[in-house]
Amino acid sequence: MNRTYIRESILNLLLALVGCVVAGTLLEIGTRLLPTPYPNVESGLICSNQLGWQGKPNYKSTFATDGYEHQVIHNRAGMHDQERSLAKPANTFRILMLGDSFVRAAHVKESETSHQILENLLNETDSINSFEVISGGTSGWGTGQELLYYRKQGRLYHPDIVLLMFYLGNDFNDNLAGKALTLEGKNCYAPYFSLCHGQLDTVSWLYAPGIKPVGQCYDESQTIHNLLGQIYQSSQLYTRLEPLLARHVQPDKLDYYHFYLPPKNETIEYAWQLTFALISQLQQEIKADGAELAVVLITPADVIAFSQMDVSQRESLYQKIPDLRQIQQPDFPNQRLRQTLAGKGIKVLDLLPLFSQHMAETKKPLYFPEDKHWNGDGNRFAGELIYRWLRDNYKLYDK
Q1: Which of 45, 80, 186, 200 has the most CB atoms around it within 10 Å of its CB?
Q2: Domain check: are 30 and 92 in the same one?
Q3: pLDDT digit string, tens, across residues 274-300
Q4: Mean pLDDT, range 125-136, rounded to an integer
């Protein structure tokens, strides 16, 4: 009697599980026949299981930025750059430039990008070496994705110097869990890193929409969390349910000006410490490969404009954003980054004072007025500044 009951119970359970699997499969098939719930905007980017998203290989399209129209062409690695071989030619010094949309620089022609300007300037000087400056930049990437890209692809170019182009406008935010871009009709979420007792967990985790991100230390829920993240990457059904699920769990999101103030809450300070830890980990892995990490700080156009405002102009801005009254030093995050990274033995070039001085003296914009990325003059000026800084701080022509 008991054995019969147990057998029937097991059979019923198995039938229920099979029924759930069949129902789920049918729902998945059905949802794939429906239009995607999110717009499919063509941007030259594609979803990536390892990086969240990356540039589309061999992509070609016409871009228009604030009236400036030009061709954007990706190489076979998906970068807005000329073709680069993995094997480093003899007598070649390589610089890998990591970053986000400021490095991708789809707002200008490839020949006008800061990385190409820098390469041209380096090769103008007589030397037994030739120089290559390789773009490792994709729109929307944070430091964590740049670390993952270096592990997967960047190190294969065998760079001698890696330049981390850190954008103070959003890189702190982009390192927190829940960063996504809408591509190919779905939200592509960036893998993220976490701290445990102040130490970086060097293994990245997948974001699962609707599920609270993992805590700062490992626990059993992370395995389930990662599994759900993997399911989301391939499931249209999960994509359909996402708006309903995500309504209950919203990722941390901060306005960038919060990082121009002394940290007022745990999320802001956590973002700072996580960013420092990610840069340290990147430095460690680059050093292990026999190369050196250097950091270039990029300041948002609005911060430069703020630093040049008179009293009445600032008062008008304070009426719209009262929190800005608390900003005493427009270069507060620059100072903190410079000091902390110097303590880790990392050289830093801060573009803020040089850009601010140039714009004040020439009255010429270095950023597009609406888009807020570097225009052609901004890319050229950045390339020139980096060239002079590298020339003065590294014995490039003695190698």
Answers
A1: 80
A2: no
A3: 999 999 999 999 999 999 999 999 999
A4: 88
Structural domain range at position 16? 1-34
Residues 181 and 294 in one domain: yes
- pTM for the model: 0.89
Q: Are residues 226 and 367 in the same domain?
A: yes
| 132 and 256 share one domain | yes
Rounded to whole angstroms, the Cα distance separating 395 from 86 reads 24
pLDDT, tens digit (0-9, with 9 covering 90-100), for 325-375: 888 788 999 999 999 999 999 999 999 999 999 999 999 999 999 999 999
Dist. CA 28–CA 33, nearest whole Å: 9
**Rounded percentage of the chain residues whose pLDDT exceeds 90:** 60
Calpha distance 93→303 (Å, rounded): 35
What are the b/e assignments for 228-267, b being 16+ CB within 10 Å? bbeebbebbbbbbbbeeebeeeebbeeebbbbbbeeeeee
Cβ-in-10-Å burial (0-12, 13-18, 19+) of 4 comes to exposed
Tokens standing for residue 190? 């960036």
The answer on 371 and 271 residing in a single domain is yes
Report if residue 156 sits inside a domain: yes
Distance between first and last Cα of the chain? 85
Taking a C-beta distance cutoff of 8 angstroms, is the pair 172, 259 a contact? Answer: yes
What would you measure as the largest C-alpha separation in the chain, in angstroms?
94
CB 62 within 8 A of CB 55: no
Check which CATH number belongs to the domain holding 169 and give it. 3.40.50.1110
For residue 142, give every residue at least 6 positions away whose Cβ sits within 8 Å of its Cβ, in sequence order, or none.
100, 170, 171, 173, 174, 175, 179, 190
